[in-house]
TrEMBL record, chain A:
Keyword Membrane: yes
Record-linked SUPFAM superfamilies: MetI-like
One GO location term (cellular component): plasma membrane
Name listed for the protein in its UniProt record: Peptide/nickel transport system permease protein
Keyword set includes Iron-sulfur: no
CDD domains linked: TM_PBP2 (cd06261)
Residue ranges crossing the lipid bilayer per the database entry: 26-44, 84-111, 123-146, 209-234, 254-276
Keywords: Cell membrane, Membrane, Transmembrane, Transmembrane helix, Transport
Classification via InterPro entries: BP-dependent_transpt_permease, MetI-like, MetI-like_sf
Record family assignment: Belongs to the binding-protein-dependent transport system permease family.
Gene3D superfamilies the UniProt entry points to: MetI-like
Membrane topology: Multi-pass membrane protein
All residue ranges annotated as the ABC transmembrane type-1 domain in the record: 88-277
From TrEMBL, chain B:
Sorted UniProt keywords: Cell membrane, Membrane, Transmembrane, Transmembrane helix, Transport
GO molecular function term, any single one: dipeptide transmembrane transporter activity
Organism: Kutzneria buriramensis
Keyword hit for Nucleotidyltransferase: no
Keyword Transmembrane tagged: yes
PROSITE patterns recorded: ABC_TM1
This protein's name: Peptide/nickel transport system permease protein
Length: 286, 308
C-alpha cells in the first residue's frame, strides 16, 4: 500500500499513464482468475490435496519435488504442497483481518477528524503524522512488543500500523464531500446528520477506500508473512507460509524447496491482489 | 518563515513520537517491574522496591513523562531490560553494519533504476511492456523471499557469496541486492514516467531542433527533470530501507539494528524497541525537512513559482 501511495505522491499529475488500458484489463482479469483459484484453495483445501498438513513420514524426509510430492517434503517428511494448501487460510486470514482492522480504525479516526473539525481534527491529524513518520513494519513490531506474539496479535499489529494511511484517505474524502453543494443543500433542508452521512459521505468515501483496501491486502499479507519469518507469528506446527519459510531456511543448502514454495505462494497471492487492485483503480480513474 | 514552520512541524512530530514511545513503555500489560525483571526465579519484595525506586515508578505518571522527555533531550535513551547496558550504547554498537547496508542498497537501487530506464527508453512497445512487468514483480515480491532465492542460487548452488554474516565486501553483495532490486523497481517506475513527460516538453523540442542527438537530449536535459522527483521520495526510501533491513538482516544473519530490534521484540525488551522506533522517526523527520528546504534549490522552477 505504501508503495502505491508513495508513487502517487511523487509522480507529477500530468505524467502519462504508462500502462495502457488494455494491458491493465488483461492484468486485472489475470489477477481475478488467480484470486478465484486461491480462494478455492482456501475454502476447499481437501479438493486440492488428499493428505493432512501435519502428517509426518520421517522415512521420506527431504524428498525433492516430484509427481508424488509436488513441492517435495520437509525435515519431518511432511508434504510441503499439502502444507501450503492448508496454510492459505491462515496466511490470507491474517492479512484480510489486518486490513479489516486498518479500515475500521481508519474510518473511525478519519470520520472523527473530518466531522469534528477544530481541535479534534488537529489532534487526530497530528497523531496520524506521528504514526506515518515510523515505517509500518517498525510500528507493527512495536505493537507486537507490547501485546506479544501469535497470529491474532500479528493481524492486530499490522492493522494498527495501517490505520494512519486509511484515516488520512477517509478524512480527505469526507472533507471534500462535506464541503460540496449537495451536502450544504441537505443541511439547509434540515436533513439530520445521520441521514446525509449515510447517503452522501459514506458512499463517496467507500469507493477509494475499497481500492486502497484491495491494494493494501497484498502488502498486509506480505507484512504478516514477514513477521512470521521473524518468528513472531503462529507457533511451530502451523502451516502458515511465513512460519514454513522461516523453518525451511535452516535447510536452504540441502532442501531449498521447503522454504521456497511457501514464499512463492505469497508472491502469487500478492501479485494477483495487486493486479486486480490496479485494474479497479484504473477503472475508477477513467 | 517557511523554514521556521517546517522545523516546528518536525519538532511536533518528534514530540508526538516521544509521547507514543512513553505510552508504549507504560501500556505493557501487567506490572512494569515484572517486565524489567523478566522471567527471573526469585523476586524479593526488597528487589521490587529497589527497582521501583530506581526507575521512578512510584512517581505520578506526569512526572515520569516529563522525566522521560528530559532524559531524551539529554540523549539518554534509557536502560535495556535484558542487557545490562544503556540502550544508546547498545544501538551505537549495532548501527554501523545497518547504515553500511542501507547506504549501499540506496546507491545500488538508484543506479539500477537509472540504468533500467536508459536501457528501455525508446525501445518501443515491447520494451515498455517488459519493463512494466519487471517493475510489477519488483513491488510484489517480498524481500524476504527474494533474499532466500538469492541465497539458494548464489550461496548454495553456486557458492560465490557467503550465506551468513557481514564478513567483508562479498558478504554485503546479496543483502544489498535483496534490498536494492525492489526499491530500484519503484524508482525506475517514477523516473520513467517523468522522463516521458519531459520528453514532450517544449525545451526537448528545441534541443532536438538544434540538431542535438537523442543521447545528448536524454543525458544532458530530460534525465535531470526525471530524477528530481525522486528527491521527494527520499523520506519514503529511508523508511522502506529501515523496514527492509529488519528482514534482510535476519534472513542473512547479519549484525545490526534490525537483528537487535527483533531480538528485543522477542524478549520484550521494550526500551530497545521504543528507542529504535524513535530513532527512525528522527531520521524520517530530518530527511523530510531537509528535502523540503532543499527542493527549491534543486528545482529552480519552484523558486520562480513562489516569487510570483
Amino acid at each position: 500500500m505504501s508503495v502505491e501511495l508513495a508513487l502517487s505522491d511523487a509522480v507529477s499529475d500530468e505524467a502519462p499513464a504508462r500502462v495502457d488500458g488494455r494491458s491493465r484489463r488483461i492484468g486485472a482479469w489475470l489477477g481475478a482468475t488467480l484470486l478465484v483459484l486461491v480462494l478455492a484453495v482456501l475454502v476447499f483445501p481437501e479438493w486440492f490435496s488428499s493428505g493432512r498438513p501435519n502428517a509426518t513420514d520421517v522415512r521420506h524426509a527431504f524428498t525433492p519435488p516430484s509427481l508424488g510430492h509436488l513441492f517435495g517434503t520437509d525435515e519431518l517428511g511432511r508434504d510441503v504442497y499439502t502444507r501450503v494448501v492448508y496454510g492459505a487460510g491462515i496466511s490470507l486470514g491474517i492479512g484480510v483481518l489486518a486490513v479489516g482492522i486498518g479500515v475500521v480504525g481508519g474510518v473511525l479516526l478519519g470520520l472523527l477528524s473530518g466531522l469534528g473539525r477544530g481541535w479534534v481534527d488537529t489532534v487526530a491529524m497530528r497523531v496520524v503524522d506521528v504514526l506515518l513518520a515510523v515505517p509500518e513494519l517498525l510500528l507493527a513490531l512495536l505493537v507486537v512488543a507490547i501485546i506479544g506474539r501469535g497470529s491474532l496479535n500479528v493481524a492486530l499489529a499490522i492493522g494498527v500500523a495501517a490505520v494512519p494511511h486509511f484515516a488520512r484517505l477517509v478524512r480527505g474524502q469526507a472533507l471534500s464531500v462535506l464541503r460540496s453543494e449537495y451536502v450544504e443543500a441537505a443541511k439547509i433542508l434540515g436533513v439530520p446528520p445521520v441521514r446525509y452521512l449515510g447517503r452522501h459521505v459514506l458512499p463517496n468515501v467507500g469507493g477509494p477506500l475499497v481500492v486502497m483496501a484491495s491494494i493494501g491486502t497484498g502488502s498486509a499479507i506480505t507484512a504478516a508473512a514477514g513477521l512470521s519469518v521473524l518468528g513472531l507469528g503462529p507457533p511451530a506446527p502451523s502451516p502458515e507460509w511465513g512460519a514454513m519459510l522461516s523453518e525451511g531456511q535452516a535447510y536452504l543448502g540441502t532442501a531449498w524447496w521447503i522454504a521456497v514454495f511457501p514464499g512463492l505462494a505469497v508472491v502469487v497471492v500478492v501479485l494477483s491482489v495487486t493486479l486486480l487492485g490496479r485494474g479497479v483503480q484504473a477503472r475508477r480513474l477513467r | 518563515m517557511r523554514a521556521g514552520r517546517r522545523l516546528l512541524a518536525g519538532l511536533l512530530v518528534l514530540w508526538g513520537a516521544a509521547t507514543l514511545t512513553f505510552l508504549a513503555l507504560h501500556l505493557i500489560p501487567g506490572d512494569q517491574v515484572d517486565a524489567i525483571l523478566g522471567p527471573s526465579l526469585s523476586v524479593t519484595p526488597q528487589l521490587r522496591a529497589q527497582i521501583t525506586a530506581e526507575y521512578g515508578l512510584d512517581h505520578p505518571l506526569v512526572v515520569q513523562y516529563l522525566d522521560y522527555l528530559g532524559r531524551l533531550l539529554r540523549g539518554d535513551l534509557g536502560q535495556s531490560y535484558q542487557r545490562d547496558m544503556p540502550v544508546g550504547r547498545l544501538l551505537a554498537e549495532q548501527i554501523g553494519p545497518t547504515v553500511q547496508l542501507a547506504l549501499s542498497a540506496a546507491l545500488a537501487a538508484f543506479v539500477v533504476a537509472i540504468l533500467a530506464v536508459l536501457v528501455t527508453a525508446g525501445s518501443g512497445r515491447f520494451g515498455r511492456w517488459l519493463a512494466s512487468v519487471i517493475e510489477l514483480l519488483a513491488v510484489s515480491v517480498p524481500n524476504f523471499w527474494l533474499g532466500l532465492i538469492l541465497l539458494t542460487v548464489f550461496s548454495f548452488r553456486f557458492p560465490i557469496f557467503p550465506a551468513v554474516g557481514a564478513a567483508g565486501p562479498l558478504g554485503l553483495v546479496l543483502p544489498t541486492a535483496t534490498l536494492a532490486l525492489p526499491l530500484g523497481g519503484v524508482l525506475a517506475q517514477v523516473i520513467r514516467q517523468e522522463l516521458e513527460l519531459a520528453d514532450g516538453r517544449p525545451f526537448a523540442i528545441s534541443v532536438r531542433a538544434r540538431g542535438a542527438s537523442e543521447v545528448h537530449l536524454t543525458l544532458r536535459h530530460t534525465l535531470r527533470h526525471a530524477v528530481t522527483p525522486v528527491v521527494t521520495l527520499s523520506a519514503w526510501v529511508i523508511g522502506s530501507l529501515i523496514g527492509g533491513t529488519v528482514l534482510v538482516e535476519n534472513i542473512f544473519v547479519r549484525p545490526g539494528i534490525g537483528r537487535t530490534l527483533v531480538g528485543a521484540v522477542v524478549s520484550r525488551d521494550t526500551p530497545v524497541v521504543t528507542a529504535i522506533v524513535l530513532l527512525s522517526a528522527v531520521a524520517f523527520v530530518v530527511v523530510n525537512t531537509v528535502v523540503d528546504l532543499l527542493y527549491p534549490i534543486i528545482d529552480p522552477r519552484l523558486r520562480a513559482e513562489s516569487r510570483t
